[in-house]
Amino acid sequence: MLRILLLIIGYAIGNIETGYIFGKLNKMDIRNYGSGNAGATNTLRVLGPKAGLIVFLGDFCKSLIPCLVVRFIFRDNVSLSYVYMLYIGLGVVLGHNFPFYLGFKGGKGVASTAGIIMALDYRIAFVCLAVFILIVAVTRYVSLASMVVMIIFIGMSHMFVKTDYGFTDGSSTMEFRLLVVIIGFLSIFMHRANIKRLLNGTENKIGKKV
């Protein structure tokens, strides 16, 4: 029941759709412009760098803060605190991607997932950030960088789970691994249209007007 409750709380928080709210403050529905989603990248393309940064930070913090709070509340059981943290983080991403009051049409969850990664392990977060910047600088494809980062997140989390996160119980370890995979591949799934455009050579590059 606690796991379900954390998912529900996370989903409610995830429904705070920063891109949509920022767009409305500018008298527009951001989903009707650019790539059609309410995430930071589309906001960057449509409204500029300042708006993109504000939306990114909003989506990032709405998962980072709840995840850190959950880790603190359950700090007496380190491994379980990580598992519970992933549940509320997954709920936030689901709420961001599928907000009920917007017809379940939100963003792609990259910034919110980044908040989960930072709450989980700053080392993974810094590696992901470095790789993200490198790929965007070389290819100018934000979508490609985002998907590669998710694979790194999954791989490094699995690598550290036994040595750094205090797991001694096999079932809890498996639950942690499964949640990490779900969160990472959920973001990749949300990029399925981008994957098609990348393969077709028609994907939008950062800095290009849409």
What does the model show?
The chain is mainly α and 210 residues long. It has one domain (2-100, 108-200). The chain is built from ten helices and no strands. Helix 3 (40-47) runs antiparallel to helix 4 and helix 4 packs across helix 6. The protein is globular. It starts with a helix and ends in a 10-residue tail after the last helix. The model has no long low-confidence stretch (mean pLDDT 91).
Labels describing this entry:
210 residues, 10 helices, mainly alpha
What share of residues is helical? over 70%
Can you tell me the number of structural domains?
1
Distance between the termini: 45 Å
Structural class determined from secondary elements? mainly alpha
- Tell me the radius of gyration: 17 Å
The mean pLDDT is 91
Order of helices and strands: HHHHHHHHHH
Low-confidence stretches: none
According to DSSP, the number of beta strands is 0
Portion in beta strands: under 5%
Question: What spatial form do the alpha-carbon principal axes imply?
Answer: globular
Q: How many helices does DSSP assign?
A: 10
Question: How would you characterize the largest beta sheet?
Answer: none
Transmembrane segments: 81-102, 114-137, 144-161, 176-195
Protein name: Glycerol-3-phosphate acyltransferase
Pfam family, one: G3P_acyltransf
GO biological process, one term: phospholipid biosynthetic process
Short description:
The chain is mainly alpha-helical and 210 residues long.
